[in-house]
Every structure is written in C-alpha cells, then in structure tokens.
Amino acid sequence: MTETATRDGADAARPLTKKDFSSDQEVRWCPGCGDYAILANVQGVMPSLGIPRENLVFVSGIGCAARFPYYMETYGFHSIHGRAPAIATGISVTRPDLKVFVVTGDGDALSIGGNHLIHAMRRNANMTILLFNNQIYGLTKGQYSPTSELGKITKSTPMGSLDYPFNPVSVALGAEATFVARSIDNERQHLTDMLTRAANHEGTAFIEIYQNCNIFNDGAFDAVRKNRPQQIRLEHGRPIRFGAEDEFGVALKRTGELEIVDATRVAEDVLLVHDAHREDPGLAFMLSRLSHTPQGPTPIGLFRQVERPVYGTRLNAQLDDAVARRGAGDLATLLAGPDNWMVN
Amino acid sequence: MTTKTVQQRDTVTIRFAGDSGDGMQLTGNRFTTVSAVLGNDVATLPDFPAEIRAPAGSLPGVSGFQLHFADHDILTPGDAPDVLVAMNPAALKTNVDDLEPGATIIVNSDAFSAGNLRKARYDSNPLDDASLSSFNVVSVPLSTLTVGALEDTGLGKKEKERAKNMFALGLMSWMFSRPTEPTVEWMRAKFAAQPELAEANITALQAGFAFGETTELFAHSYEVAPAELPPGRYRQITGNTAIAYGLVAAAERSGLPMFLGGYPITPASDVLHELARLKHFGVRTFQAEDEIAGVGAALGAAFAGSLAATVTSGPGVALKTETIGLAVSVELPLLILNIQRGGPSTGLPTKTEQSDLLQAMYGRNGEAPVPIIAAATPGDCFYAAIEAARIAITYRTPVFVLSDGYLANGAEPWRVPDVDDLPDLSSAVQFATDPNDGDRFLPFRRDAATLARPWAIPGTPGLEHRIGGLEKADGTGNISYDPDNHHRMTELRAAKVARIAESIPPVEVDHVDGARLLVLGWGSTYGPIRAAVRRARLDGMPVAVAHLRHLNPFPSNLAEVLNGYDRVLVPEMNAGQLQKLLRAEFLVDVHGYHRVSGLPFTAAELIDAIAHELKGLS
C-alpha cells in the first residue's frame, strides 16, 4: 500500500472522477455502516463541483464520522471533539479560495460541540456541515446521544435515558442557518442532490444525514429509511404531499400549526406549498416539528435556503475598506505613534 | 511666571486614587504622557478593581494609578508614593498604609462627608484627628473649586463636579512643573465632537494649575530634570499595545497574513482591541463564541497559512489546553499569548501574578512540549512576540508568550525600533510546494537542522494530505498505533523543542567581583529585581543578576551559570514555579522568594530577601 498522496501532474488536464477523491487509506468503519454509502456519495459529488482537489478541505472532530477526512484525497484535518466548526471558521475566513466541509456526528456536533455549531450557523461562515445522525455514540461503544429517543436503554442509561432529544434540523433553523436540509444515507439520488446544493451554497450549509449504525443502534431510521411512504419529500414550490399514492398532505391550521391531512379529501389549495426561500425560518421550523424523532411521517429535503452576507466575505471586505480609507498600514508609522519625542 | 521657589528632585512617585468613576486612570495616563515627553523616565502601575463601578465611595470601588518619574533610568513604578492624591475617604483609607512618614497627601476635603466616611468605615474624620500626623496633609476642596471655576459654563452641577480630576491634574502639574498645553491639545482632539465638554475640562485643568500657583497651601513646587536615555525616538507604550504591535511586525517581517482568534478576558482584551483597529495591515481578528473557538480558529488559520495567534489569560488557557495539544501533535505554528493574572480559577482578574508558568510548561495531556517566552518589561512584549513568532514559524510549533497584568497595563518610554532592524522571518516560512520523497509528499518528513515538518498549505496542488490528533507514522503522517513509532514520535517532538536552544542567546549574567549570590528572575519581575540589585550593590552587597526570557527550552549555558554561584535566589510572584523547574532540571538547590499579593514586587522587599540570602552565605 502506498501510504501518501502522490503528485498527479495530469490533474489540470483531465476531468476528475470519483476515484480521484478516494485516498489510499484503508476505510475502517464497521461492515454495514451507513458511513460507507455517504462516503461514496460525497466522493461521487466532488467532480461535479468543478473545484480543484487542492482547494477542498475536510475538517472533522472526533467520533466515527470524524474519520471521514482520512478517506478523501483532499486536504483534511481530523481535529478534536466538537471543535471542527471553529477550526473550519479559521480556515474559511483566512482563505476564501478554499471550499471547506465539516463532517460531524450527533454527539460531536450537538453535545460537546453544540456551541460552535450554532455560532457557525448564526455567523453564516462559509462551510458545508454534514451531520451524520445515528442517534448513538458509536466510537465509545454505544452510549445514548443528544438525539437518542427519550427512555433509550444503553450502557450508560440502564433504566432509560432522561434527556429530551434535539431535533438537529430544528436546532439549525433556530440558529437561523441559511441552508438547512435533511437526507438519508442510502437514498443515493436524494443525498447527491442535497450535497450538491449544499456545496454550492454561499454561507453555512447544514445537512442532517440519517445514518444507520448497525452495531449499536441498528434500524433507528427504518420507519423512514425503509418506508418511503413515510418520507415527506420537500420540494420548493410544490404542495407538500406524501404517502404511497400521495394520499397525505400537510396543511397550515388556523392556529398556526401544521397538520397532516388526507389529501384525497381536501381541496388542493388547502395543502401547504413549500417555500424554501422564505426569509422567516418559522414555517420551515414548523415543518421540522412534524416529527421530533423519525418515527412517523418525516420531512426530508431542503427546508430552507436564503441568501445572507457571508461572514468571511464581510470580514475580508472590512480589510479592503480599511485600506481604502486609511491607506495600507505602515509599520514604522504605527510603531512611532502619534505622541513621540526625540532624545539626543 | 511662578513666584514660588522650585526645588529639584531626582525621582518622584505619585499615586492618584479615587472612585472607579473619578477618572483616575485617565488622570494618571495624562500625567505620565506629559512626563515622558518632558524626557523623564517613567514607569506606571494602574491598579483598579474588577468591578466596573462598585458603589460610589466604597472601599472596593477605589481605583488607583501610580507613576514613578525620574531624571535617571528607573525600573519600577516606585515602592512608596511621595504624594498621594485621594479623591475621597475610601481612597485615603485603602492607600495610606503604603505611604512612608513625611509623604504628602492631597485630599478632596469636599468628599469627606459623614456618608462617605461611613462608607469608608471611618469612625471619625481622619482630617480632624491625629491619625495622619506623620504626613503632610493638604486639604483642598477640589469639588467646590472645580464647580466654581466652571460657574460660567452651561453644564449642570454633576457635570461640573466630574471635571475635578482635571483640577487635580492641573494642581499636580503645577506642583511638578509639567506644562498643561499637551493635555489641552489632547482634550480638544479627544472631545472634538463635544467642544463645550473639552473646554470645561481645560478650564478645570488650568484652574487647578493656577490654584497651586496662588494658594498659600504650597510653599514651593518641584522639578524633575530629563533622564539620560539612549538617543532615539521614544514613545510611551503599554505591554498589551506592544505585544499587539509585535504580532503585526512579525507578520510583516515574515510576509504572512496575521490572524488573531480571541475571546474577551481581563487583562488580555486590549490586545484584541488593538489588533481589531489594524485591519489596514491585513490583520484579521475574530471574536469567537468562546476561548476554545478562539484558539480553534487560530489553529485552522495556521493550517491554511496565516501567522495565527490567540490571546487570553490563565482561565482561558485552561480552556484552550486541548487545542494547544492538537497543535503540538499536528506541528503547526501557533502563538498563545497568556496575559497572566491572579489565580486559581477566576482569581484576581485585574491583578498581576506569574503563576501560569507550570500551566504553560505542563498543562496538557500526554508528552506535549511547548516553547515558552516571557516578556520582561512593557516594551519588551513587542520583542517577545516577534521572538515567539520566529520560533513558531521556524520549528512549526505552538509557542507560549507569557506577559502579565502589570506589563499589560503598565507603561514605559519605549525607544521606537527601526523596522529594518527587526528580525527577517521570511526565510523561515518556506511553504512546501513540491513532493519531498520522489513523487510522493511526506507531510511528517523533517528538516534535518530544525526537525520541523513541511508546512504544506491547502491550495497547493499535489500535496493533498491529512493531519490530525491521532498518532502519526514518522514521515508519512498516516495514523499509526505502532508502539515503537509512538515512542519515536514522542522523542522527535521533544527533540525538536529542545533543539530551539541552539538558536537562542546564552543567558547573560551581570556579575560583580565577589558575588556569590545570583538573583535570577523571569518575566515582569525584571524591573523590581534590577532595582533591588542596584540598590543592594550601593549598600555594599555584591550580587550577580540574570534574567530568563526563554523558559522552554532554557538557554544552553544555564547549568553553567547556576553552578557558578554558591547560592541562587529566584524571586517569583508565585509559589516557586521556576524554582521547581530549575531544581528538577539542574539538581541545584535554588532558593525562592515568593509573594502573590496581586501587585508587583517592591525593590525594598527584594533587598531584604537578598540580604537574607547573603546572611545565610556568610
């Protein structure tokens, strides 16, 4: 096995393929892990982005998902638990020419790293955050996570967990992220579509990916993953329908809440038309509340995408603005300061 | 023209003390600036409470500013004030114990009301009883005089009274023959948007000056001649400004863009503030959501090719610990500026201490050596930052810079360096651009001289690679759990830091004939130690003195120096941290002098400590 990257002088000449994004490292997730499908999907999306390989950076924290960068033939930084959004912020604001991805899990992003996650999203720093949600701690062998369902029995909660779980999409919308989507590890086309849109978004793009941990939490998403009629596929500009024959729909009640209705028995205009580009995140938030955990009908797709100034762009614009107003800094003038005197 | 006589003094220490809202820091700073411009050598000690505004008139609310100015080079802000200006009873009470008999106390007699006396816990008015009889007490109704002087302005009574600090400054300016013009100009510039406020303050300042001239309370004024300083252009500078400028200079001299990730914390925030104003130098500052994100973003910026730093104080370093360990593991340049304060925990946020040395040295999991530089004076913070950048860039390692609250806020005249004389760091940068093993790139293949690994920044075609906190295989950088590799990498990381000693100057000893005692210091104790040694020698005590700037690794001649004396005394504002390191490293029975009062050492207490050690030797 050759263990490191080799220089490929032909990069510029020929179009890149999925294979160009596979590093020579042996992938060490458990057989059957949902991460394999996500890795293959991400590698497959990369060539279509048209970004030179050297300008891609994958940053991760700690956990099973966090091994991801090692398997990508790009620049990568496997950092510390929960802190990937902070490290990615430093990369993205100093190097706007780079495309930065953060790969994280439910424990990494929402437990130890919750603070960094919400602040990256509120700032709208330029990064694409892929949150692999398997509702369990995998690398530490099976403790409940901040997305585990209430009453979850694990080694650390033998009588059932007492924490009310986070809904990651609700968290992201609460932080007013400018791009919020949800997909599923083995829904190949849907995931490709979400990844592509997220990667092309300016600002923080957040995707929750339901990812099966077949060792510690097998089947956590089967109610949605294997049961397509339970997937409420959000599509911008379309009435929200779902079910085997689109027999259900989502409607806005007069009280302001959403409800699931029998689409065969209501008028077409009763159904809510999904608007992913509403400035106010309120309606998208309510969509995320249709299922707190993925047991019943659960929306997947793009909840929200709006334009807002990007943190790094504005930070760098301030530097240009300062030079325009004050001229490029002169070190000798700075050091001498306005109040100085000569000693002879 | 003055009609009173003028007496010459070679050195004067003044302390302004009042309520947190009385403007004592501003008053002290103005007096300092004017004194420095007059050519005096100056050292200052601002001393203020952590509370922004404790209740008016209360003891915890007292804010002080001490300055020492002289006609010769001085090293400390002065042991005991010659003059105390006390704006209220609380200020008198909290400061009077620091005065020597014969000192002058100028009080604002208007503030000695029954209510203020009660708040200061005085049973009787100290101006009326004999408790201050050993001092020269001058009662001046500062508030009344200020309000009177501003009678014709349109200001309200409260606003008029608020200018009393300027009246006090005017009075002290007369007493020590300082011109008022520089402050008048400064006022007009500072309050350009509120000219009536500027004029009121100027009127109060000039009224205070005239009062000194005409009142019969003072028989004479004083003059302190300019000091003989090495020729050059000078300015006043605080440690926090100097450290910020040092980072900007290091960025310019290395050709790297500067990035600072930080989170507000006393007494380090001013470094963030200073740098935030320097965007026209290409400086990027990032006020993060917490200390961890501040250093995390800095490490990300370092990975991407910036000269990256984070600035904080002890509790912040505690939070950044894990990321600093990651920086050790991934071997990227990163500056960690610790403006130390009293600890443990929240401790004394506005007071000084040097008790984070062992935290810098050992405060990480695993074997994680980090080089440490400590600044000696406010102006030296500039050079400490540049030296830290040199080491970080050259050796691809995180580096600690230790300053402290005293250096951070204290000011001194600083000879402005010529930019071309500053170290050229550009050759140390050397971003990797090509494979280094045939057509392969090995991100952990080391430079033979420095043991540094390549700095291959994202955006470089063909050098795509992955780094992380897991142990890496020597050379390839791939994850490795191999036992021998881990041992070898641990040794390599240690050897790289140890090798820095080859690039740092030997410790210089200021020796005198017959000296058997070496006083060895580090950090901000430089001034008090030098002042104490100077006076001890005048008193006939032969003492050698040396100062450590590099705490890890130590200069290579240190063992020889320590073994050259019968006794080594290390004064520290901690419980003996350098002392422990020296004992462990060199098996020398180093003695210590330790005090953690939140204030810098006085020269007097160090002379006593020196005398005590000398007695033990005889």
What does this structure look like?
The complex is a heterodimer of chains A (344) and B (618). Chain A is an alpha/beta fold and 344 residues long. Helix content of chain A is 28%, strand content 19%. Chain A has helices at 34-49, 84-94, 106-112, 114-123, 168-174, 188-199, 222-225, 282-288, 311-326, 331-336; strands spanning 56-60, 75-78, 99-105, 127-133, 179-184, 204-210, 231-234, 241-242, 248-252, 258-262, 298-305, 340-343. Chain A has an 8-stranded mixed sheet, with helices on both faces. Chain A has a 3-stranded antiparallel sheet with strand order 8-9-10, with no helix packed on it. In chain A, helix 2 packs parallel to helix 9 and helix 5 (168-174) packs antiparallel against helix 8 (282-288). Chain B is an alpha/beta fold and 618 residues long. In chain B, the strands form 5 sheets. In chain B, strands 11-10-12-13-15-14-21 form a 7-stranded mixed sheet, with helices on both faces. Chain B is globular. The mean pLDDT of chain B is 95. At the A-B interface, strand 1, strand 2, helix 2, helix 4 and helix 9 of A face helix 1, strand 9, helix 9, helix 11 and helix 12 of B.
